[in-house]
Structure formats: C-alpha cells, structure tokens
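Dear Dr. H.,

I hope your travels went smoothly. While you were away I took the liberty of generating a structure for the chain from your last submission, since the lab meeting agenda had it listed for discussion. I wanted you to have the full record in hand beforehand rather than looking at slides cold. The sequence, exactly as received, is reproduced here:
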Amino acid sequence: MRLAGVDGLSAVGHRPGIPALALAVRGASGLSAVQVVAALQGALGVATGLAAAALERAGGARRASWILAGLLSGTFAVHLAAGYLANLGFAAAFLAAAAMLARGGRAGAVGAAAMLGAGGLAHPLFFLVGAGVLLLSAALAWRVDRAEALRVGGAALGGGVLLGAGLLALLIGPGPLEVDTSKDAFLRRAGLTDELRAAYLDRFVHRWTRYVQWASVPLAVAGLRPAVGFVGRFLRAWGLVTIVGVAVSLATGIAPADRFVTFGFVVPVLAALGLVRLWDALGTRRALASALAGALTLAMLAGAWIAWDRQEPFLRELEVRRVTDVGRWLGGGRTDTALVFPVNDDDPAVTFLATRAANVIRAAVPPERIRDVVVVVPAPPGEADAVRRALTRITLEDAARASADRDGRLDVLLAPFDRVDLAEASAPGSPWRRVSTGVFLSPAEAVLGDVPSSPLERSSPLGIGGATIAAIALLGVVGFGWARATGCDVPAAAALSPATGAAAVTISAIALERLGLPLDGSAPVGALASGLAAAGGYGLWLVLERRARARAAP
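The corresponding predicted structure, in token form, is as follows:
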C-alpha cells in the first residue's frame, strides 16, 4: 500500500485491488496505514459472512439457516484475515456475486460480473478458482435450466473481461517490485521444488483440522440434500473444485493445498443447512435438538476463536521502532544507495525470518526507499542445509545486483533481526557504527537527516475496533445503492452492501489512479473515489427504479 502511494499501482504488480481499496479508505476516513489494513481485515470478514447469509436467503433457506450461514462463514474468515487479505477480498466478492446470481435476472448477472472482476483485481489466481466453480455450476444447470447456465457463464466471462482490462491498464507506469514476500516464494525462486512440496504437505497435515472443524464436515455433507436450485448446484461445484484442488495440489506441489481449504466457505455454508436439517430430524425433542445444535455451533465457533487467538502479529512493535529509528539516517545522506539488511539466526534455516524481516523493513522504511531494501543472510560458520546455502547465495546476489544498479550500498544491522552478529558489530574497531539502540550502520559516514517521512504509526485494540466499524459503515453506505440496483430487496442489499461497497471503491480508485490522480492516501482523492463509487450506485438505482415504475404504470 505504501509503495503504491509513492510509485503508483503499477508498482504492486497483478494484485492492485487491496492496496487501491486501502488507500481510498484511508483518504476518505483519515485512518493510519496500520489502522486501515487491520480495519479491512475485520470489515471484509464481516462482509464475507453477510454475503454468505444473503446467498442462502436468496436460495430460499429458512431464517435460522441463513443466520447460521452468516455466523459460521464470518467466523471462518479469520483464517484468511490472518495474513491473506487479498484472498479475503476475493472471497467476499465471490460470495456476493453468487448471491446476486441466485436472485436471477439480467441485473444480477451484470452485478455479479462486476463483483467477480473487482475480486479478481484483489487476487487474480483465485479468480481462476472462482471462475472454475461458476463454469462447473453452469454445466450442472445446462440440462435443467439453460437460462441459468448462460447467466452464470456470462457473469464469469464478464468478470474475466473486467479483470483483464484492469491488469492491462497496470502495464503503464513503474514496474512491479519483484521480491520474495514469503518462504514459499523464495523456495520457488531458488528452484527447491522438493523442499517446497514438503513444506506444502507439512502445512496441510498440521493445519487443516484447525481450519475445518470435525463437526462441520459431516454437517456439510448433511446440508447437501436441502441445497437445491442454483444455490445447490453452486455449492456442489464449489465443494468439488475444493476437493480436486486439494488433491491436485498435494499430488503435484504446484500450490499449497491448505489455501483451497481456507477458501472453502462452502463448508460453513453447507454446515448451516446441515444444522437445521438435524434440528428437524429430532422432531418434537426440542430440548435435545437445542442442546445438540448449540453444542455443534459452539464447537465450530470455538475452532475459529482458537485459531484467531493463536495468531501472532507479523509486525512487532520493537522491530518497527528500530526500522523507524534508522529511517532518519536514510534521508540524511545519499538517497540512491542500496539498503542492505543482514538477517541471521542460530537456527540454520532462517527462510521464514528472512522473508518476514524483509516485509517488516519495507513496510516501515520511508516509502520512497522501499525499492532500495535488500535482505542478505550471511553464511553460517558451520555446515548448512541446502535451503540455507541457497538462501545465502541468492540474497548475496541480490545485494550485489542492487549495489551495482545504484551508487553503492549502506549496510544496516538491526538487533531484532540479527542478534548473531550483534556482538561483533559492538566490538571496538568494528566497521559498524552504532547510531541508536539496536541500530548499526556501515560505512560509518552516514548523516542524520530529518524526521523520516510517513513513519509507520502504531495503533491500539480500541483504535482498530473503531476503525473496523468505520470501514464497515463507509463500505456499507457506498455499496447499498449498487446492491439495490442489482434487484436485491432491502435486507439482501443491506447484507451485500459492505462487499459491493468494497468492489465499487476498488474499481473507482483504480480507474482514478490510472487516469492520473495519485492514489497516495490523501483525503481529496480518497473521498473522490468513495464519493464517485457511491454516486454511481445510487444514481443507477434511481434510474432503474424510475424505469421500472414507468413500465408498470399502465
């Protein structure tokens, strides 16, 4: 997000959706960078749950069923909110698109296409998964309802056209920052395919029961029978794509299988139907039905709560403070040098630490210096495994290349990321110069500059909670008109409004930025993007309402 605010959306590559949305919401609301990202995690999780409820309601499910679907899906979203914000953005848009398709009609299909395109701009690879689900659903409907099949297939095609247009527009401007933002990305770049497949398998084996609770699987199977019409075909197609995706990923190692599981909102949606079916099966034994349904619901909610409670922050306050401290020294002298940060640990495999450190450093340095950051992992004193050797070799090559492309380099040792070499840096005669607590520079001639531009400001639980409510309110107000324009009644439009608002602001912000307005998080551009998105939805709704009244008058 901070890089896009300086260099434009072209600098973030093929996933501009969430950075554009975050910058627009930040400008419109006045939130800090940390607050707006945290707020979108909560807001999009809520939007996902509400869209799941709207989907079941559109399919004719009973009130208890669609309320449970919203509750279980919204809490299941914690697995994506904890670090997979682009995935979560697509999940909210995908479920909202399905709810629009479930209501039928041309307006719903057009709205679904727009939702799919906006979601794809958040995560194009998962757009392919979503398109596969919709095309399979259309195939299942071909023999029984060809109008539905054409409508669903047309929405998938329209979403792909919108996504393609957005990605083509990003080819203009500075090129994307090509860095490893995860351990998986590094292993893939290093060609360590066996280690990557082993990591995928280990992650799936140890995490999948945390993602999908045992109680939800049989309930989801039980929920298949009452799922009928488009909703039934859609959920069956989603379940099949999830199973095939997991199987292919485990067999080939081309993708992490657990990502298909965390995207599997089909399980909580079907589990809600299964719970209501279980209630009905118990007949007049209401006390037993209430106790059993309540216990199973609490078990599924507890699984999500435990996963959320165990989540560790990716940005730690001490680390951000140290990077902020060094920021003043990055602007006092030459600003065209490579910034080389050593990362070391006693553990011979420091792949996760290295990629996480790179993310923290790039997030907290002055935004105009993000492209200059390079992380290196020194060779260990003893024997090292293949992953550590590859990590050392590749990061040293990155540093040499960055130094050659710029006017030299400035090495920065931060204690939180390299305590192994801290004693050597502190020793007399060391080439390192201690400039503040836990911060060492080499060469020592660095000059202290002004206060770093745009420091990464911390927030609080109360601040993040308030920011989340503000983001939900903003997106809901923006999206209500668009939801009504697709033919939704008031309750359905209210449920879909956060997801449709996020999609509308995303498209509006990207369009304005590509037309030349810098999307830097400032109030004017953020307010303009949100205002145009809202005006477009309410304007279209009013036009369609007048046209409908005119046709109905005779």
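Two observations you may find useful: The mean pLDDT is 88. The first strand starts at residue 338 and ends at 342.

With kind regards,
E. W.
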